[in-house]
Amino acid sequence: MKMAQNYKSYIEGKRHKAQSAMEYLMTYGWAILIIGIVLSVLFEIGLFKPNVYVTNLCVLPSGFGCNPDSLTTSGTLTLTIKNALNDPINITAIGCSKNETFLNMQTPNNPPSNQIYLPIGGTSTISVSCQGAPSHAGSLYKGYLILNYTDDVTGFPQTVYGSVVIKAT
User: Would the pTM count as exceeding 0.70?
Assistant: First the structure.
């Protein structure tokens, strides 16, 4: 009789352990399912797409201001350049590329001199063709700028390098 009671208590102990294990698995299973659903919803609304939150940015060295206006899917970048130097300048060429190799330096289309004159504090909107531009709207483009200019006072040619981050439209 004592053996039957020991066996019965042994079975009931196993039953309680099994029930405890099932409760544990069910609780954590539901928690994992809810976390998965929440992550799926957040992914669908675009929370994990960083290019949604990126603002257009243009960085040139001290003495220049830069504001990227737009980038078309055909690769035309429109930006506004500001002269914050102590001398007026003439922009003689500008280039834009996905990497730091500039094969497409373009002379501004500004007859008769094909230069853009910027007085001290002056601004000009320039369009330049960018190599490696994204082919569809909303894609993020990170590229490099090069600007050749001549100081109007000294007459010396100068070159400055910068970078641009913009979403294609």
Answer: no
